[in-house]
Each structure stands twice: as C-alpha cells, then as structure tokens.
Amino acid sequence: MMAKVNSNKRAALDFLSFINASPTPFHAVKSVKERLSNAGFKEIRERESWASTCQPGGKYYLTRNGSTIVAFAIGKKWKPGNPISMVGTHTDSPVLRLKPVSKKQGVGFVQIGVETYGGGLWHTWFDRDLGIAGRVMVRTTDGSIIQRLVHIDRPILRIPTLAIHLDRQETFSFNKETQLFPIAGLIAAELNRTSGGSKGRDVGDANGEETGNTADPTPLKAMAERHHPYLMELIASELGVTIDDVLDFEMILFDTQKACLGGLLEEFIFSPRLDNLNMSFCATMGLIKSLEGESALENESSIRLIALFDHEEIGSLTAQGADSNALPAIIRRLSVLPSSSFEDARSEESYSTIGGEEGLSTAYEQTLSTSFLLSADMAHSVNPNYAFKYESDHQPEMNKGPVIKVNANARYATNSPGIVLLQEVARKADQDGEGCVPLQLFVVRNDSSCGGTIGPMLSAALGARTLDLGVLWSGDYVFEGTAETLELLRSKGKMDSLVYGVGKKIVFVTNNSTKSRVEYKKKFEGLGIPTTLEEIFSSSYSAAIYISRILDLPQNKRKVFVLGESGIEQELRSENITVLGGTDPAYLRQLDASEYDLIATGDPTILDPEVGVVLVGLDFHINYLKLSLAYHYIRRGAIFLATNIDSTLPKSGTLFPGARSISAPLIMMLGTDPIAVGKPSQAMMDAIEGKFKFDRSRACMVGDRVNTDIRFGQEGKLGGTLAVLTGVSTKDDVLNGPIRPAAFVDKLSDLLELKN
C-alpha cells in the first residue's frame, strides 16, 4: 500500500499538499493565509490603525503585495517594550517569468518569451512539463480592478534540448536569451484555430511584433497583442472572464510534476521550491501548533511572530523584500501596543501607566534589544557525489538536526550568543519531554563562494475536520463495509490514529448530474447509508448555486438552456431559474428542415433571447436539435457551462459516455472549453467551503477517479487525498499516472483496519 496514512508521515504529506498548491509566492501566501484564518487569525491591514484592533491574546496577520505575509500572536501578559520572538523566511524561488511582451515564434513554432528570476540552475528547466501560474489584474463588471490568482496545472510549455545527434557537447551550455524560450504550439494550428488561416488573427512576425493595426489607441499594446491569443484565452477561461477584462499579469513557469515522497522507504521528499517553502511551511505550522492550547497565550509576555518575505532570491531590496521597512514598521507599531491590564486600552490616558510619552518613546528600542530573530533558510545536505565540495568538518547530514550557518564575512548573521541561545532552546525540548534536538554547524570552504540569507539585512535593520467523500458505489451495488466505515468516521473519538481530532464531518460530492440531491438521498437510504440532504453536494446543485449566486447575469438573460437530465432541472428550479431544453418533450425530436433558417437568423420563436447560459451535463437524450440550439445560444453570447469534465460514466462493470462526451461536439465547434462547476473545478470546492466552513488543511478527498476526485482535492489544497480502487482508476493509474494521491486503498472499508 502506498503512503499508508499514519502519524509518522502526516506532517510530510501536509507539506506536500502545501507546496503543490504554491507554485508562486502569491499562491504560497494564499495557502498560508488559509491556514492562519482556519487557526483563528484575523487579517489586518497596514493602512488601518491597530490601536483598537490588536489586543493581548489576539492572533493577526497582514500581507504586502500579496507575496509577503507577517503573522503574530500577542501574549496576554504583553507590555509595551517587551520582546518579540521572530522567525523570518522567504516565499520565492528561482523561476522563469513571462516577459511583458511574450509573443514569439520561430520556424513554425509558437513560443513564449521568458526572463530569468534569481540565480537558478537553468539547464534543469529543459525538457520539463511546464505550466503557468501567477497574479492577474482583472477589471470587474462594475469597472473596478482586482487581482486574481491563476494556476494552470497542466503541461502547456516545454523548453526543448537539441537532439543528441546534432550536439554531443559534454558540458551543456546555451544562450539564456535565445535558447531558453519554451514552445507552446504550432503556428499552423494557431492559424487554423483562430479561424480560417489568413482570415484569422495575425500571429505576428518572427520577432513577436504584431503586424496588424488596432482600431483604438491605448497607452500600451493590448494584452492579446503582447501575448499569444490562445494563452490569453486560456488565462481568461481559468478566471471566467473575457480577454478584454485581463489588464496585466505576472506569470511564472513551474514544473507540473507533483512533489512526492521518495526513496526505497519513502524517507525523502522529492520536490521543487524546497528553498524556501519548506521553512515557510514550518514557520507557519510552528506558530499555529504553538497556539493550539486554550491557555497558550495566558502566561505569555512576548509576541510570537513569523515573517515570510518575497524577493530574497534577487536581493530583497524591494517594498515586499526583507530589506524593506516592512518588518521594522510592524515591530515599531507592535512595541507600543498597550497591555491587557489597562482599563481602556484604546484611551491615550492609559499610556501614563508605563511612564507616559517618555516611556513609549523608547518602547521600540527596548523591544528590539530583547527580541530574537531566527533566519530560517534551507541548508544543503552533503551530496555523496560531490563530498569534496564541502568543508571536511562541516558536512551537514540528513536527519542529524537543524543546521546553524556560520560565516566569518557576515554572509550569515550567526554569532556566539545566538548559538548558545539556540542550544538552550534545543535542551529545553528535552526537559519538556520531547527529546533533545540535535544541531549541526556549517561553514563553506575557503575556496568556495557562500550563499546568503535575509538574516544579515534584518539584523542590521533591527539591532472541524472533514472527510470529503466522492464515489462510494457502482450502479446500485454498495461495496462491503462502506456503511460501517462512514459510521465510524462520523463517530466521536474512534479515529484518532487515522486523523487528528474527533468527530468527522462527511460531505458526499458527486459529478453525476442526472439526479437531484433529493433523489440521491433516497438512493443512499436504499443502499443502507443514512444521510441528510445537507451532506450531499452534486454537480447539478453546484451549477445551480454558481448560476444564481455567482454569475451576475442581466435581468433579461437569466434563462438556462440545458443539455441534461431531470436532476439538473430540479436543482435549477430550486434556485428559481427558468429552464429550457433538458427533458422537455418539445426538444426530444429531430431538427425540422424549416428550422435551419430560423436558427440562423436568431428567430425568437426558436432561440429565446433571454437565454444567458447553456449548461451541459450527462444527457441520455442528446440529439442534433439540442446541440444546434446550444451552439447558437453560445455564439450569441450565452455563457458555456458544464456540470463536470468526466469523459466516461462507470456502469455495470464497464464505461459509457460521460458528461464531457456530451459537450465534446460543442467544444469542437466553438474551439473553447466550458467553465466546469463539478470536480475538479475549484468553483465547486469554493461553494462547498462556503457552505460547510471547514478547514481545508484537515480535510481529505476520497474518490475512485484520479483526474477528477484526486485532482479536485489536490487543487483544492486539502490536507490529504485517498484513492479507492473500486471505480474508474486502476492501481497503475494511481502509482504511475500524472496525478497521484497521497494514499490509496483497495476499498473504503480498508480504513476499518486502522480503527484500533
């Protein structure tokens, strides 16, 4: 059994979920924010006053630029001028970033212009399956501008090496400006896609310059001129907006291969971005774990703080870098926060208790003089193939403890008092019954260059848990032990050896849109599985919620044309949405010859002008008429939605066409994919989270289909994913496929074996 769920690997698997959800500093900060919010931290902003907000016993966080985050907890015995315990890390890694004008091509290939960020080993980026992720500035329907995050987690780019027969150089060398551009497609395919070869959009010359003219002058070239149109369509589609709504972006390339456990005994973590997301994760979880007890801050007189900075890889000298005013400004504001002993912590008179204005005027300096900063950055274990590169008496070994970095030229901030203090902390762990923490010392060789951290610059400047289940049955057969396993998960105190805590909330998530939640409840009960309507979340219900509560449809465009069964119709009507198509007998017929002209001209007798959405699900009565109407509704501006992207439907021990097979003709005709609202769409995850208010980091997705169920859990940044081999995906899919769960079992009831 792969990565069987147990306490020894729980932390590693949690970290894997964190790093796979964090391809950019923006996503890393988003992941940290979610964990902090779930732990009771409150978001504050730099531009606001903290006097009435930040109170002893409180937990807070703030961000800068969306890529730097600082979080802190204030002890209940805090007084102005008291010390602050700090851990500093960084969120960025060396990457390739899209250029402001990335549209390039060469000898028949569509290419993307990129620039290097940081000091990367750029030869390792060749021949990898690359996706893109980052921050997008989007104009909303009301004209305001907001930032949205994009994570296109599939291979769309590759930097190809030259064939070995054409270049047998022993040392791989290349030009970063001319030979590091990824290929994204073929020009011929792009021309055909943009409709009709030379009649389509001009893809530009070999240097990426647009050869056409724009009608309206703008300060900068339009985004669709600066970047390839299909790339823009892909990004816009991910966000559910139009290309014109995308104003700018900061896009980063990343390897789509997931971080995973490795080694013969799974003793390693194989992962990108370990420097320094590992320390960012440890700092975040360390702060959260230290506050789990109700009395954690009761006798605390200091502030516990973590700071995760961006731009360490390029020197930190930016507004969101460690060499900015960010941390000093925050500490200055925290140092004068009043204590809880004041009758009115918000009144200026209360400050007289600590010596008036004179006492407060030196609180910042007092705080700095007694505070301690731990600069946490990854250290390099000795490499067995290059052991000679390490100083012989300072070779860090795996599993021999944290590494204290020392450098005589102050590339690291360590000094003797700091070493002694850290040793005392390590000894205290033994006194607390946790065992003494071993430490290691590291210096570089005199004939080797030394790296750097944020330590010196900061030193200089400062002096409800959920198990989310998917498919549980096959047809009308419920697998042995399923009901008992669900009952065990719901019960209190019986699963501590499997997941933390007691009492699990279960949500049944299904992509099958043919039934309503009421019908699914009846099916559950018929299979001997008691459940409530609130525990069922189907793709048809998700679609209804998305259309009624998220899409801002005009009043005259609120009807929905359906390719699907009664389950969709029932859920849409429960949200007071008017339905056309679907199971209506008027649409279960052939297209009459006289109706071609009516459709072509948009005659309202056949094309209702108030249809604003076309929703496609599994339709057992699909026909040419419904496809034709759906196509022309979308051509006339209707939003193209799909309940899910399952291409097949498991039934009677084999597979049949699924919902994506129904939408496939429309996809081929339109040249675009629908917005999916079922697994693995995060629109569905957001809707579930909004309804149940659960902690994603302590939830597990269980399902039998890796490309929807497991991907749903991974992209939703759930704490775990568990595959069951009772449905679509095979053991080979689970072990060797591109999407791999954290664990798998033959059947759900295998969890019963872990109950004791």
TrEMBL record:
<dbReference type="GO" id="GO:0070006">
    <property type="term" value="F:metalloaminopeptidase activity"/>
</dbReference>
<keyword id="KW-0645">Protease</keyword>
<dbReference type="InterPro" id="IPR023214">
    <property type="entry name" value="HAD_sf"/>
</dbReference>
<keyword id="KW-0482">Metalloprotease</keyword>
<keyword id="KW-0031">Aminopeptidase</keyword>
<dbReference type="GO" id="GO:0000324">
    <property type="term" value="C:fungal-type vacuole"/>
</dbReference>
<dbReference type="InterPro" id="IPR006357">
    <property type="entry name" value="HAD-SF_hydro_IIA"/>
</dbReference>
<feature type="region of interest" description="Disordered">
    <location>
        <begin position="195"/>
        <end position="220"/>
    </location>
</feature>
<keyword id="KW-0378">Hydrolase</keyword>
<keyword id="KW-0862">Zinc</keyword>
<dbReference type="InterPro" id="IPR001948">
    <property type="entry name" value="Peptidase_M18"/>
</dbReference>
<dbReference type="GO" id="GO:0004035">
    <property type="term" value="F:alkaline phosphatase activity"/>
</dbReference>
<dbReference type="Pfam" id="PF13242">
    <property type="entry name" value="Hydrolase_like"/>
</dbReference>
<dbReference type="Pfam" id="PF02127">
    <property type="entry name" value="Peptidase_M18"/>
</dbReference>
<keyword id="KW-0479">Metal-binding</keyword>
<protein>
    <recommendedName>
        <fullName>4-nitrophenylphosphatase</fullName>
        <ecNumber>3.1.3.41</ecNumber>
        <ecNumber>3.4.11.21</ecNumber>
    </recommendedName>
</protein>
<dbReference type="InterPro" id="IPR023358">
    <property type="entry name" value="Peptidase_M18_dom2"/>
</dbReference>
<dbReference type="GO" id="GO:0006508">
    <property type="term" value="P:proteolysis"/>
</dbReference>
<dbReference type="InterPro" id="IPR036412">
    <property type="entry name" value="HAD-like_sf"/>
</dbReference>
<dbReference type="GO" id="GO:0008270">
    <property type="term" value="F:zinc ion binding"/>
</dbReference>
<comment type="similarity">
    <text>Belongs to the peptidase M18 family.</text>
</comment>
